[in-house]
Amino acid sequence: MDLSGVRLTDDANDVVTADDIDLVIELIGGYEPARTFVATAIEHGKHVVTANKALIAKHGEELFPLAEKHGVAIGFEAAVGGGIPCLKALREGLAANSVESLYGIFNGTCNFILTKMENEGADYMDVLKEAQELGYAEADPTFDVEGIDTAHKLSILASMSFGSKIKFDEVFTEGISKITAADIEAVAELGYRIKLLGIAKPHCVDGVDKVEMRVHPTLVPLSAQIAQVSDSYNAVMVSGDFVEHTVYTGRGAGERPTASAVIADVMDIARVCGNGASGGVKYLAPPMAYVASERQDIATLPMADVQSEYYLRFMVQDEPGVIAAISSILADHRISLEAVSQKERHATQAVPVIMLTHATTEGNLQAAISRIISLPSVQEDVLILRKESFGV
Asked: What pairing do the DSSP bridges indicate for beta strands 360-361 and 337-342?
């Protein structure tokens, strides 16, 4: 390969402002300076391809109109799902459908950790350390394990699915750091597996459209397809009114899967626009699937109004009447129980009590929990996990 014509620079501004460069690839990550470099490239008439989900989730509503104004394209397939072409499938392949639900395992680090904890009975901190040593997790793993990375990706997919503005800051977000090996074992005995899921659904409440967006550890039936996605793999499940259920799985991160998605975007733009001719952009599908004039500022469904079934784990003093007291408070809030189990006493003399509820609203549950944790016999914070059945 002849590299004699290649110019090297240590100043990104040389690239984003150069007159003889038609397309810029941004692989910095994070909000800044990525946003500034991308905006500058667009203002100088350059197409942009990025793998930066944080950038799109936080600043997409600023960058997409800017790109349209300057007649250039933004490609970001690698921002969600790594090498899985889920954005292209949603944007183009499912264009005839109204999306009815969206579920996904969007973070390979969390999926790796949960898989190892289940297979080896290992503690969360030990597996997190291993994930860091293997390069799956950063030195500061907060974005991954606390669900922020997943929320970035979910907000993008939800916007693309329902024609809404990107509202990353309104995604309900919980991570996996409170999950213990004992919880994973208890859940397995009940026929479930824990996965960190991103979930989005459309709703019409009193004639007003709203979008449900939430990220949290979720109980999924062992027989569900998404329960079989293990290690660092990702999965995206999209249900549409015509196509019904579709599933996309593959490597959600890593240099080769990411490169696959980045180069696919470059090739799409090169085919349509070619030789820097920006007029071809109008032949590309809209970046967020809907034309700009049809995208709406759809309200986010408050988490208190979300309905779910729940797994509750209480640590209580081993004394008569404790389970009855908890059950009575749940009943006061119209929460019925599917199953109750009591595990062996811990070294701290606390006893784990596990309850599975039938469907209720998050608001009802939180009101009940606020009363339960005031009981003298409840010794620690309650672990609340939501459950999805997937029709199983």
From this structure: unpaired
Residues forming beta bridges with residue 164, ordered by sequence position: 296
| Structure confidence at residue 379 as a pLDDT band (50, 70, 90) | confident
Our answer to whether residue 153 is catalytic in this structure is: yes
Q: How far is residue 140's CA from residue 148's CA, in Å, rounded to a whole number?
A: 13
Measured CA distances, 194 to 74, 175, 184, 185 (Å): 35, 12, 7, 10
Catalytic member of 46, 53, 153, 167: 153
Beta carbons of 150 and 215 less than 8 angstroms apart = yes
pTM for this one?
Answer: 0.92
- Regarding whether 214 and 228 lie in a shared domain, the answer is yes
Residue 7 lies in a domain: no
Helix boundaries (H) for 274-361: 322-332
Domain containing residue 157: CATH number? 3.30.360.10
Could you give the C-alpha distances from 254 to 69, 89, 145, 298, 351, in angstroms and in order? 33, 21, 17, 34, 42
Locate 243 and state its tokens: 């196509």
Structural domain tally of the chain? 3
- Joined together, the tokens standing for residue 89 give 């499938």
Whether the ω angle into residue 33 lies within 30 degrees of 0, i.e. cis, is yes
Last residue of a domain, one of 266, 291, 316: 291
Q: Which of 243, 271, 291 is the last residue of a domain?
A: 291
Domain of 343, in residue numbers: 303-387
Q: Are residues 108 and 236 in the same domain?
A: yes
CATH number of the structural domain spanning residue 379: 3.30.70.260
Q: Output the domain CATH number for residue 269.
A: 3.40.50.720
Place of tokens 């309850």: 355
Short-list 388, 298, 296, 302, CA closest to 102: 388
Asked if pLDDT for residue 238 goes beyond 60, the answer is: yes
b/e 125-141 (16+ beta carbons within 10 angstroms → b): eebbebbeeeebbeeeb
Considering the domain architecture, whether residues 140 and 247 belong to the same structural domain is answered as yes
Concatenating the DSSP letter of every residue in 290-321 gives S-GGG-B-PEEPPGGG-EEEEEEEEEEES-TT
pLDDT single digits (tens) 8-23: 899 999 999 999 999 9
Q: To 5 degrees, how large is the angle CA 325–CA 326–CA 331?
A: 95
* 297 within some domain: no
If DSSP codes are grouped into helix, strand and coil, which group holds residue 244? strand
